[in-house]
Write a structure and sequence with these properties.
Helix content: under 10%
Number of domains: 1
Distance between the termini: 68 Å
Strand content: 35-45%
Number of helices: 1
CATH class: Mainly Beta
CATH topology: Jelly Rolls
Largest sheet: 10 strands, mixed
Shape: globular
């Protein structure tokens, strides 16, 4: 809070009142001003952000996953979050906190509720599925540094607010960033789509950081999502553009079926034509990268400086045509 500055008082009768007012204000503790957000990139306008400049995680923006798994639609419990992960997610300050204007997500090696590791996963969706923030199309930007170590799996990604086209991955998943702690020079962006498991598909691409850079340094990870096209960049360097995917809702007994022809596909650009919410997490172990070993030093932290979401100032228009790719029913 900025204190009023009293210069020369034109009316002597106000001196007493002014003095009392000044003294009362001077006794108030200063309130930190919010971190200034730089101007939006050309062609974009800021619509949502978190600079992590408060004393704790903003509960109006983020909620937490807890535990080590989830229940399917049929109430079957799937441990390890479907990936054989080893961590138990919590919302404890030991695993997630805000300090010096940055979010810290910490994975700890400890015995907790029958598991040997704890960590945190934050979503812009409530734990009960209610909305906090979700967006269809836009520019999603994160400045973050990531931990190094075998079996350490940091991720910044997006999931559909509602599974409009069916269970994973018929309704899609957008992985803005994944990294393997044992491979600190490389990051990866991935699209998940297709029919629901086990007829799901994905497209991915790795990016090697230039000049011997590593994920342990701060980098800006950005995804630009428009109708019919999705682009990934690191520190302003575009490294991947995707314009081919598909969605099919056919299933039998809870298992996805691949489409027999194009008539069984959901209309383009499904599934990436629905609002998605943001997830940030730090996993330990799993099928993606393997488990920690004796060389992995705990605790490890993913530090996020900010998350910013932008809209195109001139709108999006019609979807770009589907690009070249291979459907399950394509001939060899």
């Amino acid at each position: 809070m900025k204190l009023c500055h009293f210069g020369r008082l034109a009316l002597l009768g106000l001196i007493g009142v002014g003095f009392v007012s000044f003294a009362a204000r001077a006794a108030e503790p200063p309130v930190a001003e919010s971190t200034a957000v730089p101007p939006a990139p050309a062609g974009w306008k800021l619509v949502w952000h978190d600079e992590f400049d408060g004393p704790e995680v903003d509960k109006t923006k983020w909620d937490f996953d807890r535990g080590n798994g989830f229940q399917t639609e049929s109430k079957q419990y799937v441990g390890g979050w479907g990936n054989d992960e080893l961590e138990f997610y919590t919302n404890r300050p030991e695993n997630v906190f805000v300090k010096d204007g940055m979010l810290h997500i910490r994975a700890v090696k400890e015995s907790y509720k029958g598991f040997q590791y704890t960590s945190a996963r934050l979503n812009t969706r409530k734990k009960d599925g209610g909305p906090l923030f979700n967006k269809k199309y836009g520019r999603f930007e994160f400045r973050a540094k990531l931990p190094i170590g075998r079996g350490i799996w940091p991720a910044l990604w997006m999931r559909p607010q509602a599974e409009t086209y069916g269970g994973w991955a018929a309704s899609g998943e957008i992985d803005i960033l994944e990294a393997k702690g044992q491979n600190p020079t490389t990051v990866q962006g991935t699209l998940h789509f297709g029919s629901r498991w086990p007829a799901n598909h994905w497209i991915k691409k790795d990016y090697v950081l230039p000049d011997q850079g590593t994920i342990a340094d701060f980098h800006v990870y950005t995804l630009e999502w428009e109708p019919g096209e999705i682009r990934w960049s690191v520190d302003g360097k575009l490294y991947q553009t995707q314009n081919f995917w598909w969605s099919c809702s056919d299933q039998e007994g809870g298992r996805g079926l691949p489409p027999n022809d194009e008539s069984e596909l959901n209309p383009w650009p499904a599934p990436f034509d629905q609002p998605f919410f943001i997830t940030m997490n730090l996993a330990v172990g799993g099928k993606f990268l393997g488990n920690p070993d004796a060389t992995t030093k705990f605790p490890v932290e993913m530090v996020v400086d900010y998350v910013r979401v932008y809209d195109k100032t001139d709108g999006y228009g019609a979807a770009k045509p589907r690009g070249q790719g291979k459907f399950p029913f394509s001939k060899p």
